[in-house]
Structure formats: structure tokens, C-alpha cells
Amino acid sequence: MIQFLSLLFYFVVPCLVIVLCRKYAIMNRIGEILLLYIIGIVISNVIIFPLGLGESLKGIQDTLTSVMILLAFPMILFGCDFKNWKLKNAITSLCIGLVSVLAVDIIGYYIFNDDQTGFSKIAGLLVGVYTGGTPNLASLKIALDVESETYIFVHTFDMVISFVYLVFLMSFGIKLFRLFLRQQDNKTTRRQESSEFKVQSSESSYSGIFTRKHFPKTLGALGLAILIVGVGMGVSFLISGKVDNMLVLILTMTTLSIAASFLPFVRKMEKSYDTGMYLVLIFSLVVATMVDITSIDYKAGFNIVMYIAFVIFSSLVVSVILAKIFKVDSDTMVITSVALVNSPLFVPMIAESMKNKKVIITGITVGVIGYAVGNYLGILVYQLL
Predict the structure, then answer these.
(1) Which of 31, 29, 36 is nearest to 13 (CA)?
(2) Distances from the Cα of 176 to the Cαs of 169, 173, 296, 334, 339, in angstroms?
(3) With DSSP H G I counted as helix, E B as strand and the rest as coil, what are the percentages for the chain, rounded to 5?
(4) pTM score, whole prediction
(5) Which of 170, 178, 162, 173 is nearest to 343 (CA)?
(6) What is the full per-residue pLDDT of the chain (385 aa) written as tens digits?
């Protein structure tokens, strides 16, 4: 019964939040994703964990986080226009992001190193996870022979502080950076948005998905997404012996999804993007309900916690400065930072907060390259320090 109720909760609450955001301007300014984060954290720390429901929900939470984001990924890419993507801008932004992380990680090592044995290993872990992602963190644990206790501590606070970072961006960070950095050219933006896919206003997003006009095509998009996920897992298994090798899986899914977006019948699936974003909303709510703020030992490893926070937020500051110098627009800078600090899977979420889906392909490309170089950079920094 509890599994059924939890499924109902995860699928229905995002619908209610969408309706409230359309009805009340103040909620619309906050945004669906941030509201779902707030709701999820309140529910998890007032009901789920105090009543001991965490373990009974863990299986369904793990399944939903994996399934929702994997299906959302291709459906969102189906609705993107890749013909006008600017490669030069993405490469510049990638270099800025990598340099920012490497620089602040090394500086932070000398600031927060309290002569603990293996602090250079933590520096390597942080470079790996903030240029790549969790798969890099896990592989570097083995490569650098990091103790399990240290790995768990770093991973836990990485998730907590990364969550704070996302909330900062969605609440006022994006608006702040748009004031400081240049924005994408409005003429180009209008020309791109008037191509195959019309960018919908927030009021029209999600509407009409279940109408006779759109529902069959939306089901087709979902079926195609499932097929792409299956092929991605198959390729991952053939190459690495595991179906969940994130580097191989995301590379395969991204390639196939981009290729599919050029097909005429896929371009007619107008609601694939909205459906994918709804799956992202479910993912956001599930992730938020997995956070138990009372179980975190904030006193232990204070220097490590400060080091993690320093790397995340200082790399963002350095990225802003370099973006100003090299004339990279604000949205590209932010999406690059998110792709590196979090992962490519969070790119659509932030792009939706920006109301700018043109940056999705840049963010995903940057994130995938980050997966590829994260291990190398992590080991390199460890050896240097």
C-alpha cells in the first residue's frame, strides 16, 4: 500500500504544482522545480524519516530516479533544435569550466589541508566529481585507494552542497549572472526559436499533452525513448560488461537522440519536450524526498565540508570572471557549470529554469566530455599534490 501511495504522490504532486504555478504569479516566479524541492525536503523530514519509512521507500525511489531521468533525457533532446548550435561557444565554455575547477581545487587544497593523511586523495576525488560526475567519483575511489569512510563522507556532502548550489542558481543566481554577463543575442534567439520547434510560454507548457492531436505522438516519443535507452544499455554492456556505465550510456543515448531529432516524424512530436520535463519534475521531487538532513554529521570533517563548498562556489565565481573576459553569455556559463559540478542529467532542469532550451545540447556535450576526462584529471591532480 505504501508503495502505491508513494507512486501516486510522486506523479500527482508535480501536476498540482504546475497548476499552482499557472494560477499564482509568485509561485511561477519561484518555479516548479524549486517548489518541488521544498515540498520534498519538508515531506521527507517531517513524515518519511521521522516515521521510519525511509528504508521501505528506498527501492521505489532508486527506481524512479533512474527511470525518470533516463526516459526524460532523449524526450527532451527530441524537442531541441541542433541545427543552430554554436560549437565554438561550447568549447570556450568547457575550457573555462575545467580551468575554474582545477584552479580552485588546487588552491583549496593548500587552504583546507589540515595535515590529514590522504588529503591529496580528496583533492583528486573533487576534481573528478566536479569535472565529471558520480561515476568518476566511484572509479577514483578505487584508483586512488580511498578509504570507504572518507569516500562516503565526501559523497554525502557533495550531494548536500551541490543541492544548495542548484537551489541558489534557480532562486536568484541565474538572474544575477544575467545582469553581470551578456545574454544570448536576441535576434539569433528569436530566429532559432521560430524554427522547427516553437518555444512555448510557461502558461502553455504541458497543456494539450493528452489531446487527440498530441497524445499518440507523445506515446510514440516515449516508445522511441525507451528504445534508445535499451540500445544505450546494450552498447554499455557490450563495451564495459555493465548496463549502467554512465559514460557509454549517455554518449550512446545523446548520439541517438540527436540523430532522431532530425527525423521529420520526430520533429512533429511537439509535446516530447514537455513530457520529458514532466519526468524531470518527478525526478526532482523523488530526489528531494531522499534527503535526511538530521542524519548528517556536520561537525565531523569540517575542513572537508568547507573544501567541497569552496570548490563548488569558487569555481562558479572564477567561471563568471573568465566568461566576462572571453565574452561567453550568462546562460552558457551557468549550464556549463551545472554540467560539470552536477552532471549532464541536471542540464534540462536548469535549462527549464532559464526558459532557454537552446543551451541543453551545450550542457550535455560539456558534461559528457567531463565524464571522459574526469578520471584523468583527478589522478593528475592527486599526483601533483
Answers:
(1) 36
(2) 9, 5, 31, 11, 19
(3) 80, 0, 20
(4) 0.67
(5) 162
(6) 788 889 999 999 999 999 898 888 888 777 787 788 889 889 988 988 888 887 888 888 888 887 887 888 788 778 766 666 667 777 888 899 999 999 999 999 999 887 665 789 999 999 988 998 766 777 788 778 887 677 767 877 887 898 889 889 988 899 899 988 877 654 444 444 433 334 344 445 677 777 777 888 889 989 999 999 999 999 989 998 888 777 678 778 878 888 888 888 887 887 888 888 888 888 888 888 887 777 766 666 788 889 999 999 999 999 999 999 998 889 999 999 999 998 777 888 888 888 888 888 888 888 878 877 888 898 899 989 8
Q: Cell for 363?
A: 550542457
**Residue type at position 5:** L
Around Cβ 381, how many Cβ atoms within 10 Å? 23
Q: Are 18 and 275 in contact (CB under 8 A)?
A: no
For 233, the grid coordinates are 544499455
What whole-number distance in Å separates Cα of residue 354 and Cα of residue 356?
5
Q: H-type helices in 44-86, by residue range?
A: 54-78
- From residue 315, alpha-carbon distances to 35, 112, 247, 354, 364 in Å are 26, 16, 23, 20, 19
Contact indicator for 96, 336 with CB cutoff of 8 Å: yes
Give per-residue burial for 297-329: e unless 16+ CB within 10 Å, then b: eeeebebbbebbbbbbbbbbebbbebbeeeebb
Other beta carbons within 10 Å of 140: 26
| Residue burial 237-247, b: 16+ Cβ < 10 Å; e: rest | eeeeeeeebbb
Residue of 97, 98, 155 whose CA lies nearest to 304: 155
**What grid cell was written down for 348?**
534540462
277 to 19, 96, 103, 324: CA distances (angstroms): 15, 28, 34, 30
How many C-beta atoms surround the C-beta of residue 115 within 10 A? 5
Of 105, 314, 77, whose CA–CA distance to 197 is shortest? 77
